[in-house]
Amino acid sequence: MNTNTPHDPVGWHGTTILCVRRGGTVAMAGDGQVSLGQTVIKGNARKVRRIGAGGAVLAGFAGATADAFTLLERLEAKLERFPNQLERACVELAKDWRTDRYLRRLEAMMAVADRDRSFTLTGNGDVLEPDDGVIGIGSGGNFALSAARALLTVEDLGAEEIARRSMKIAGDICVYTNYNVIVETIG
């Protein structure tokens, strides 16, 4: 029996999303594996995208794909309504997500970032900004997060290199994460 709540990332299998900030650059990486139970359905899904005016916001999702696309569309609409106000757009989406009967049933999480800030969004109404500029979500998120935090101590590594190395480590550990990684950067 699955006792995980709909917004419990530990219960989700099929992706790793990592966001890393360093030296004025933000990098967001996502693997390409989509799993159904113990079967890999697709190996090259694109779970990290540029959204907003001019692609100024990076967004990565974990969870049910259709649900995540619904949330991405809603976030884009909020960004149109509140241009250059990522935090406000995220808070408005989180309010809708928490109170709208349809949206409440969506099983996904998102990591979003612009040039200045990064946030994790959940269906519980959370809009969380990390203290250290690193976000990891999805089934391999904690592995990638741990690796990225360790690699932040290496001075000569940039955000993109930290993200790539951390995703490799997550892929080595998490059976629901593959090595087909997409990385988008700002900065």
List the helices and strands and how they pair.
Blueprint: E1 16-22, E2 25-30, E3 34-36, E4 39-42, E5 48-51, E6 57-63, H1 65-81, H2 86-99, E7 108-113, E8 118-121, E9 127-128, E10 134-138, H3 141-151, H4 159-173, E11 182-186
Antiparallel strand pairs: 1-2, 1-10, 2-11, 3-4, 5-6, 6-7, 7-8, 8-9
Q: Which value, in Å, is the CA radius of gyration?
A: 15 Å
Decide which structural class fits the backbone.
alpha+beta
What is the count of helical runs? 4
Named at the architecture level, the CATH assignment is 4-Layer Sandwich
CATH topology: Glutamine Phosphoribosylpyrophosphate, subunit 1, domain 1
CATH H-tier superfamily: Aminohydrolase, N-terminal nucleophile (Ntn) domain
Question: pLDDT average, as an integer?
Answer: 89
Count of folded domains = 1
Amino- and carboxy-terminal Cα gap: 45 Å
The percent range for helix content is: 25-40%
